Amino acid sequence: MHKLSHRERDPNSLQQLLLVCGVVSIFLILSLSWIGIQRAATNSVLIEAEYDSTQIAKLMVAQHYQLLFSDGEQNIAMDNHGLNTFDKTIRDFLHLFGIVKVKVFDLDGVIIYSTDANIIGRRVEDRAGLEKALRGETDSHQMTKEQLIDLYEEQRFDVDVVETYLPVYNTSGEIAGSFEVYLDVTRYRNEISYRVSSSLLLLATILLGVFLLSFWVVSKASKQLKALLTRLEQQATTDTLTGLINRGAVLHRAEEELSRMQRHDLQQKPTHGLGVIMLDIDFFKAVNDTYGHQVGDEVLREMSRRITGCLREYDIFGRYGGEEFLVLIPSCTREEAMLSAERIRGCLAGGPVIIGEYRLEITVSLGVTCCLNPEEGFEAVLSRADHALYEAKHLGRNRMIFFGIQQMQDIDGDGQEVVKPIGDALYGADN
Q1: How many C-beta neighbours within 10 Å does residue 43 have?
Q2: Alpha-carbon 119 to chain mean position
Q3: What pLDDT sits at residue 417?
Q4: What is this structure's pTM?
Q5: What is the side-by-side order of every strand in the sheet holding 139-149?
Q6: Which helix (H) or strand (E) holds 417?
């Protein structure tokens, strides 16, 4: 008989698995969404800042072209007058657009103008953004400056800026230099945070709603499945006529008891073992032939109720087949197994079974054995009980016979010790 696993017997484990998977999934989705939304919002600010910086730079070139190309050449170059005028214009107006720093490079990467006058004249090398701009490309990236000197020459801390490099063209359409513009986007920090938090809150609400709905559906289905499995397990293990466990279930319980004996090393207590009682209703075929199968079924039910009342709570009682039944008595001695069998025999023989207008005298024959060594296997134990039952039938019924195994030191010709089965009988009252 196949034993159902805990998960098979308890569909609630499916709910627990769904709960764990749901929580992990929501966490992963929200984490990945936070990264995605954060990047999307940052890219949006970056694109907007790059556009603004490009337009401002174009405006500066258009309005101050003569200052930027003061020597009349096609490359950017400013004299002192142009430099001072250009600087004053930037400081007076560009702060209105959030510009905090401006640099102008010539084709050689030399800074010919900067809002930080200390670096004018320096040559910048190995700067990817500048190299792209001098090739005609626009390059932007966002960064956070721990400290920065703005156009008012005031020191500011923790400022988010978008640094944009963009090419400057002369009237011939050739690249003449590059602008580097720092655009203050700190004001977007709270907006980005709001976008991310509000989007995540909305997404979390949707996910939680979908998960709770799914969990409710699975919960309802699990309850129905659990009820169905319980009914199926009962049908698979229960005898529908008597309500006792059936043949497969009682044999499975026997194997469990032998396994328990092995785990607890019951071999160290040779006087205690698993008592096995096989019993059969005497002349049951005659009851069916004389009174009909409905009466016979009632006899089986009444007999099952009486025997159940004679057993201990932890004894195991099942229908083996037809009018045969099997009783398992855990952790008992040979004498206790025989006393239990005799108690069952006396209980059934002590009073008639009344079914409607019929008063039937019902007796049983019982074969008893006791397994002290779980290694021998239940088939061998059951064979002894069946043999004892056959002997009880053969000797006149309404009696109990115990069949045990005793070790005798019988030395054969080869000097080997031989174990022989010895049958013992205890008789009940004759019919």
Answers
A1: 11
A2: 62
A3: 33
A4: 0.52
A5: 111-114, 99-106, 175-184, 155-169, 139-149
A6: strand 417-418
Q: Which pLDDT belongs to residue 342?
A: 93
Determine phi and psi for 125, rounding to 5 degrees.
-125, 160
> d(Cα 307, Cα 379) in Å, to the nearest integer?
24
Mean pLDDT of each 10-residue bin along the chain, 431 residues long: 52 74 86 86 80 81 79 74 83 80 90 88 89 90 83 82 88 87 83 83 88 82 77 81 93 92 66 92 94 94 93 93 94 92 92 91 94 89 94 93 58 32 40 32
Residue 89's alpha-carbon distances to 49, 78, 267, 340, 352, in angstroms, are: 21, 14, 104, 113, 122
Q: Is the dihedral of CA 348, 350, 354, 357 positive or negative?
A: positive
Instruction: Say what the pLDDT of residue 73 is.
Output: 65
Write down the CATH number for the domain with range 23-192.
3.30.450.20
Q: Which two tokens stand for residue 19?
A: 């709960």
One-letter identity of residue 192: I
Give the relative orientation of helices 334-349 and 293-310 as an angle to the nearest 10 degrees.
140
C-alpha radius of gyration, the chain, whole number: 48
Q: How far apart are CA 190 and CA 169, in angstroms?
A: 37
- pLDDT value of residue 268: 52
Residue found by looking up tokens 């069946």 in the block: 386
Domain boundaries, the chain: 23-192, 247-426
CATH (residue range 247-426)? 3.30.70.270
The whole-angstrom separation of Cα 195 and Cα 324 is: 77
Q: What are phi and psi of 213, to 5 degrees?
A: -65, -45
Cβ-proximal residues to 180 (8 Å cutoff; 6+ apart), any chain: 101, 102, 103, 104, 105, 129, 130, 133, 163, 164, 165
Helix (H, G, I), strand (E, B) or coil at 109: coil
- Report how far residue 210's alpha carbon sits from residue 204's, in angstroms, rounded to the nearest whole number: 10
| DSSP per-residue string spanning 124-183 | P-S-HHHHHHHTT--EEEEEEEEEEE-TTS-EEEEEEEEEEEEEEE-TTS-EEEEEEEEE
Phi-psi region of 315 (alpha: psi -120 to 50; beta: other; left: phi over 0): beta
